[in-house]
Specification:
The strands form four sheets. Strands 2-3-4-5-6-10 form a six-stranded mixed β-sheet. The chain has a three-stranded mixed β-sheet with strand order 9-11-12. The chain has a two-stranded antiparallel sheet with strand order 1-13. Helices cover about 20% and strands about 15% of the residues. By secondary structure, it is an alpha/beta fold. The longest helix has 20 residues. Helix 2 packs parallel to helix 4. The chain is globular, with a radius of gyration of 19 Å. The chain has a single domain, classed as 2-enoyl-CoA Hydratase, Chain A, domain 1, CATH 3.90.226. This is Periplasmic protein-like protein.
Length: about 325
């Protein structure tokens, strides 16, 4: 894939000359639509319904996660091009179903997910990550920028994006994982989402501690299943919610097995080449799931991966 022209994968088919993009909890989501009048293969968007243009000013990373499918430009690719999926926002209980909607009918093994996200629900991220690994998807971190071109609107991948909290564990789900030097990959502890903003002053019951311990166990199993290391868990679980998130260094990215294409990450060219995928987006609004903190407009970063509420004592399946 190419970030502004030449983001390439070693041992992975190249996505030449195309453009790509992730967020955090908030009130904005988007209605599903297919718009690209000048493109023979239009991009497809999967978003929650109910449009509200007034909320467009909210930073995309602070909204519930949305997905947009961008087909590779068939006539301008260099080498073996791949389709890409723009994944932007916070992971909520709606996210797995939205991904299934956008992925339906596509060959996922030939696609790369480009993440720009502030994290979200632990259990929903784990569920989605297992779907991605089973489908053979590849992952990276990037930020999509829209610009006007001779054929209409284009989306260009910029590497200075964020993958924080549970987004890091979604990134780990990729069959192949590329992290550009300009990307920010940050980790911290999971916590009760409704108490993370003032974690020290909050009150906790034994049930709350049980929930966090349970979800730490599920996250640990998932991490090892995806090929991650104990170092990733150790780094994340050492940072409480009242401290700034820890940004992983290149050495820590390698140590945690988050990077599979390090040689390319260190030498990816910065100049743009070739054509870019076209897309058009619509906007919408939908209330955030109950276990995410709410405000009337923007939901502040909780600096937490969140621990889910009790499941009623249901036994875990081997995949959980």
């Amino acid at each position: 894939m190419a970030f502004v022209g030449s983001l390439t994968f070693v041992g992975l088919a190249r996505i030449g000359a195309m453009a790509v993009l992730l967020t955090l909890p908030g009130a904005v989501a988007r209605g599903e639509a297919t718009h690209a009048p000048t493109a023979s293969q239009p991009s497809q968007n999967a978003h929650a319904p109910e449009a509200n243009r007034a909320t467009d000013v909210i930073e995309p990373r602070r909204q519930p996660m949305t997905f947009t499918w961008h087909p590779a430009p068939k006539h301008s690719c260099i080498g073996d091009c791949r389709d890409w999926i723009e994944a932007v926002g916070v992971i909520t209980s709606d996210t797995p179903a939205l991904f299934e909607k956008i992925a339906n009918g596509h060959d996922l093994s030939s696609a790369t997910v480009v993440l720009n996200s502030g994290g979200g629900s632990v259990l929903d991220a784990i569920a989605l990550g297992r779907v991605w690994r089973a489908a053979g998807l590849h992952t990276t971190v990037g930020h999509a920028v829209t610009s006007e071109g001779p054929n209409g609107k284009t989306r260009t991948i910029k590497p200075n994006a964020y993958c924080e909290s549970m987004c890091v564990f979604l990134l780990l789900a990729g069959e192949s994982r590329f992290i550009p030097n300009e990307a920010h990959v940050r980790v911290h502890q999971i916590w009760m989402g409704d108490r993370a903003s003032d974690a020290k002053a909050a009150a906790y019951a034994a049930q709350d501690l049980m929930i966090v311990q349970r979800d730490v166990g599920r996250l640990a199993k998932y991490t090892f299943d995806m090929g991650g290391t104990g170092d990733l868990l150790s780094l994340a679980l050492s940072v409480p919610p009242w401290e700034p998130l820890h940004e992983l260094t290149r050495a820590e990215l390698r140590l945690s097995n988050l990077v599979t294409d390090e040689a390319v990450a260190e030498h990816a060219p910065a100049r743009a080449t070739g054509a870019q995928a076209t897309t058009a987006l619509t906007s919408a609004q939908k209330p955030v799931q109950e276990r995410l903190p709410k405000t009337d407009a923007v939901v502040k970063s909780t600096k937490t991966a969140e621990a889910a509420p009790p499941t009623g004592g249901a036994a875990l399946t081997p995949e959980q």
